[in-house]
Amino acid sequence: MRRALDTVVVFLLLPSVLAFTPLPAVDLAIGARGVATNDSTCLAIQQAISSASSVYYPSDPQYSQDIWHFMNSSIQYPKCTVEPGTVQDVSKIMKILANSTSPFAVKCGGHASNQGFSSTTGVLIAMTRFNKVIYHPETSTADIPTGVIWDDVYAALEPHGVNVVGGRVSGVGATGVTLGGGYSWLTNLYGLTVDSVTAFELVLPSGEVVEVTNDNKFRDLFFALKGGFNNFGIVTKFTLTTYPQGQIWAGLILYSGSHWDKLADATVDFQNSNTDPNANVLPSFNQYPNGTQVAAVLVFYNKPTAPPGLFDKFLNVPSISQNVTTRSFRDFILSIPSNAEAGFRGAFKGVSLAEFSPGILKTILAEIPTWSAYNGANSGVFVSYDMEPFLTSIPKHATPSAFPHDKFASPMNIYFAWTSPDSDGAQMQGIEQTAANIAAAAKAEGQDIDSLTLYPNYCLADTPLEKMYGNNVQRLKSIKEEYDPLNVMGRTGG
Ligand SMILES: Cc1cc2nc3c(=O)[nH]c(=O)nc-3n(C[C@H](O)[C@H](O)[C@H](O)COP(=O)(O)OP(=O)(O)OC[C@H]3O[C@@H](n4cnc5c(N)ncnc54)[C@H](O)[C@@H]3O)c2cc1C
Ligand SMILES: *[C@@H]1O[C@H](CO)[C@@H](O)[C@H](O)[C@H]1NC(C)=O
Ligand SMILES: *[C@@H]1O[C@H](CO)[C@@H](O)[C@H](O)[C@H]1NC(C)=O
Ligand SMILES: *[C@@H]1O[C@H](CO)[C@@H](O)[C@H](O)[C@H]1NC(C)=O
Ligand SMILES: *[C@@H]1O[C@H](CO)[C@@H](O)[C@H](O)[C@H]1NC(C)=O
């Protein structure tokens, strides 16, 4: 089934992009690779867990569901998958894994853009049964179990008229976004997702289950988990501050390539002139191997109507289609057809800029045709460059975190999609090179980007720790040494 460009749809997200060939969310035909129903670790887990939990092998349909990833290149084929149903079972599983030499992985929404982060050739722990979001009106917090996607979180909270600082499009896992940092539609108002975490429930590599907060003896872990992903144990739940949420004005606008210069101007202008934390935009510039260029701009205002003029620079550019309207927050998230572009191989590579200057936008627009041709020559599907012009005041919300974000950085993300595993090397080289070109242009115009950390959720697997965690690396290593001296979590990758 193909959809015409003007009825569309689009894209996605963050890396937004148009997806013209929606793929089934899950293909059950993966079947029998690496069949090993006699794997001793899988068997030990199977024998230890309660009836609330299950182990699946490659011939089970549920195995294919469990290994699903947004990007096909992030998939690996484990010996078995495990769906724990209780924290006690997670603890038992952890003890068995710690006592083994088996590689393993833990997965929430499966949107990691690197293989081996939430995929493995050993035991894959799929957290999907951790799915009950609980709102606590008395403390204005919500408990988020680590098997849910943000769609589920918004569905649970919307009836109460509250929201949390979470993912910007449909389908993304709550846990990876949170453990990596978390850029949201509400970031201009409240900071990153990590800044509104009040507690984590964590299964340590020892199997001990602990409540981690800023005010108890696990203060170091509280800091470490805010950007530290799966390095310190398996998180089973986290608690987020909730904020009142009413109707919003938001939607998606698609533009053809002939108006990109105007959209680049609009992006720079929005960054330089907007001071209203309710307002946000996410412009992304995409090109297909056949040369077709489409920009997808998400506009957002956290009230039912936007102030006159604020978005005019975008609204006045002739569009292919637009769907900007007053609606609920959840309706907006669900209207963004991000899932339609799942199923390709892909990579994310972020660049942290001091600002989206006219020169940087010009450089980026010039990179796109070059790298689209390169992408196309290597089983390419599209290239996508997105700009995230947050308010420079967001560091005032920053809390002490493994991922330092107390100095302002404008994130941008590059996303290449392709189909053939044979193209993995070439595509990775290409995305590295275009990111390096943009970084070089920023430095050439005087941006001090070497002092800015990279957003961990937009990094390739080989990114040096210092680039993401800056001066925190030593402290994180000593926290790791304390809680995971045998480096059990090192067998998870990522
Ligand atoms: C379409 C799309 C849209 C996106 N939109 C946004 C956005 O709006 N804002 C943003 O900030 N980022 C966004 N991202 C990037 C996103 O933050 C990362 O891809 C994130 O890691 C995905 O989380 P997940 O739970 O889906 O991933 P997973 O692949 O399931 O997990 C990601 C990482 O978290 C670890 N992890 C998962 N569960 C646990 C657990 N219980 N305990 C310990 N470690 C765990 C995994 O081991 C892995 O290292 C987007 C990505 C995509 C593909
Ligand atoms: C650890 O593994 C060994 C052999 O691999 C096994 O005999 C022992 O019972 C295991 N201990 C636990 C606590 O699982
Ligand atoms: C180019 O490719 C896109 C995505 O596959 C498709 O929708 C579009 O119609 C194509 N355009 C032309 C001119 O062939
Ligand atoms: C546009 O938004 C409306 C209102 O939320 C929704 O019903 C409709 O499905 C959306 N259309 C598209 C193409 O997203
Ligand atoms: C992605 O993986 C699924 C499941 O293995 C498969 O059905 C699909 O064809 C793959 N997509 C591409 C573009 O290779």
Q: What this model shows, in words?
A:
This protein has helices spanning 40-48, 61-67, 87-98, 150-157, 174-180, 187-190, 219-225, 260-273, 312-315, 329-335, 358-376, 424-444, 465-469, 473-483; strands at 54-56, 80-83, 104-107, 123-126, 134-136, 141-145, 162-163, 197-203, 209-212, 234-241, 243-244, 248-256, 279-287, 293-301, 321-322, 325-327, 345-353, 380-387, 410-418. It is α+β, with helices and mostly antiparallel strands and 494 residues long. Among the domains are: 32-126, Uridine Diphospho-n-acetylenolpyruvylglucosamine Reductase, domain 2, CATH 3.30.43.10; 134-244 and 471-492, Uridine Diphospho-n-acetylenolpyruvylglucosamine Reductase, domain 3, CATH 3.30.465.10. The strands form four sheets. Strands 12, 13, 14, 15, 16, 17, 18 and 19 form an eight-stranded antiparallel beta sheet that branches. Helix 1 packs antiparallel against helix 3 and helix 8 (260-273) packs across helix 11 (358-376). The longest helix is centred in the C-terminal third of the chain and has 21 residues, at 424-444. Residues 1-36 have low confidence and may be disordered. Residues 323, 325, 327, 331, 335 line the site of one 2-acetamido-2-deoxy-beta-D-glucopyranose.
